[in-house]
């Protein structure tokens, strides 16, 4: 379920648990990318009941939360663990949103048996392809959130190294 909030006091009530993930969607009804990613955000909320999913509607203009978190684009997704920001996504990036939720959400029942487990053959219980998939999604999300200036700098450094070796 996605809760709609508009004040810092409402957010403070949701972020009292220092280990629980809260995902804030800064959105507006007149924003087409916001409306396009809305079903994905709601689907993630339904699939991850142990995570707080909240929406801040900025259709009428800015509010105290948008100012506090320096929101300059919509949609903007801010990930908090407790009250500390751990990740931010600007723009409608479904793959990045799914990857960030998977990366930062902790299972509801991480108790005494939270390890990988062993099979009778002595190998781990989970496949390595799943962890590789998450890493590649994480890298894709990181690259898509990298500023254009940083991408140009990386490309220039790579070209310099390439031509230096020739």
For this entry, give a set of tags.
5 strands, 166 residues
Per DSSP E runs of 2 or more residues, the count of β-strands stands at 5
Oligomer: single chain
- What percent of residues adopt helix (DSSP H or I)? 40-55%
Strand composition percent: 15-25%
- Largest sheet: number of strands, sense, barrel closure: 5 strands, mixed
Poorly predicted residue ranges: 125-133
The pLDDT mean sits at: 82
Explain this structure.
This protein is of the alpha/beta class and 166 residues long. Helices cover 45% and strands 17% of the residues. It contains six helices and five strands; from the N terminus they run βαβαβαββααα. It has a five-stranded mixed sheet with strand order 1-3-2-4-5, with helices on one face. A hairpin with a 2-residue loop joins strand 4 (76-81) and strand 5. Helix 2 packs parallel to helix 4 (94-104) and helix 4 crosses helix 5 (128-144). It is globular. It starts with a strand and ends with a helix. Mean pLDDT is 82; it is low at 125-133.
Helices and strands in order:
Blueprint: E1 2-4, H1 8-14, E2 21-27, H2 32-47, E3 52-57, H3 64-68, E4 76-81, E5 84-90, H4 94-104, H5 128-144, H6 148-165
Parallel strand pairs: 1-3, 2-3
Antiparallel strand pairs: 2-4, 4-5
Q: Could you give a quick summary of the protein structure above?
A:
This protein has 166 residues and is α/β, with parallel strands linked by helices. It has helices at residues 8-14, 32-47, 64-68, 94-104, 128-144, 148-165, and strands at residues 2-4, 21-27, 52-57, 76-81, 84-90. Helix 2 links the parallel strand 2 (21-27) and strand 3 (52-57).
């Amino acid at each position: 379920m996605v809760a709609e909030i508009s004040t810092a006091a409402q957010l403070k009530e949701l972020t009292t648990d220092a280990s629980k993930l809260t995902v804030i969607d800064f959105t507006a009804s007149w924003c087409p990318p916001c409306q396009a990613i809305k079903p994905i955000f709601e689907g993630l909320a339904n699939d991850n009941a142990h995570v707080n999913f909240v929406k801040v509607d900025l259709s009428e203009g800015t509010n105290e939360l948008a100012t506090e978190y320096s929101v300059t684009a919509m949609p903007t997704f801010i990930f908090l663990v407790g009250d500390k920001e751990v990740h931010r996504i600007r723009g409608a990036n479904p793959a990045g949103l799914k990857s960030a939720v998977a990366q930062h959400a902790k299972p509801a029942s991480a108790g005494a048996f939270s390890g990988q487990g062993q099979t009778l053959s002595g190998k781990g219980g989970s496949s390595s392809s799943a962890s590789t998939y998450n890493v590649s999604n994480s890298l894709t999300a990181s690259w898509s959130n990298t500023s254009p200036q940083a991408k140009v700098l990386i490309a220039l450094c790579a070209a310099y190294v390439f031509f230096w070796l020739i």
